[in-house]
Design brief:
Blueprint (H helix, E strand, L loop, with lengths): L2 H14 L2 H20 L9 H30 L2 H5 L6 H34 L4 H32 L3 H16 L4 H4 L5 H26 L3
Helix pairs in contact: 1-5, 2-3, 2-5, 3-5, 3-6, 3-7, 5-6, 5-9, 6-7, 6-9
Length: 221
């Protein structure tokens, strides 16, 4: 097993056991159900699966970005990277393994929340599975694209931020706005909007990760 795989598995074990991930995997589906059945008439008629995907894209992406930023800042403060960088590891492996671990965890949370919503919607709706699936396809793709950008932004913020406080502020005021970029094709009703969402998500995520690795390589440890 290569060094990246070992780093990825180590990061994955750390993140999926955290309380934040427990909230994402359990809390988001429960929150969607509470909003769906216990809210005012403003949410009447909105499928639970659609509501779940919207919650994941907004809350999940922000939490993923904050987790990554705080994790990297803490490791910088504890001078953890001094130990890593005397070993035969590439610096990009450190950042990319964190990104992949968090993105996978949030992706699983997205799938769990939306699958639960689809099951409930199919049981209650006369539209059937195919109609419900078509209804949530774009929001689901959007949630994954926004989570990818938010996670990459979290890595970048963690690299450049001097403290946890600054990092959290940047996540709230910048990370959320940047991660909303893939929603523009849907907002403006562009043709092939799903493909544009995927393209915008991939391009923005890759650019942010590239900038993160570039700046991380410039740092002296």
């Amino acid at each position: 097993m290569n060094s990246f795989s070992l780093l990825f598995l180590d990061e994955l074990k750390g993140f999926y056991k955290s309380k934040v991930m427990v909230f994402l995997w359990v809390g988001l589906p429960l929150l969607a159900i509470l909003l769906h059945y216990g809210s005012s008439s403003d949410l009447d008629g909105i499928p639970l699966s659609l509501l779940s995907s919207l919650l994941v894209s907004s809350i999940g992406g922000t939490l993923a970005s904050a987790m990554l930023a705080v994790s990297i800042i803490h490791e910088k403060e504890r001078r953890t990277y001094d130990l890593f960088l005397i070993r035969p590891l590439q610096r990009w492996e450190l950042m990319l393994s964190k990104f992949c671990a968090v993105y996978l965890c949030v992706g699983i949370a997205s799938v769990l929340a939306i699958v639960l919503g689809v099951v409930v919607d199919v049981m209650q709706s006369p539209l059937g599975f195919e109609a419900v699936f078509e209804m949530i396809a774009e929001p689901f793709v959007l949630s994954l694209a926004m989570t990818g950008i938010a996670s990459a932004a979290g890595v970048l913020i963690g690299v450049v931020s001097p403290s946890v406080l600054v990092g959290v502020i940047l996540v709230i005021y910048i990370g959320g706005n940047v991660s909303s970029l893939p929603s523009l094709p849907l907002v403006f009703g562009m043709e092939n909007s799903t493909a544009l969402v995927v393209g915008a998500g991939v391009v923005a995520t890759v650019l942010l990760l590239y900038l993160s690795v570039y700046l991380f390589n410039k740092k002296q440890f």
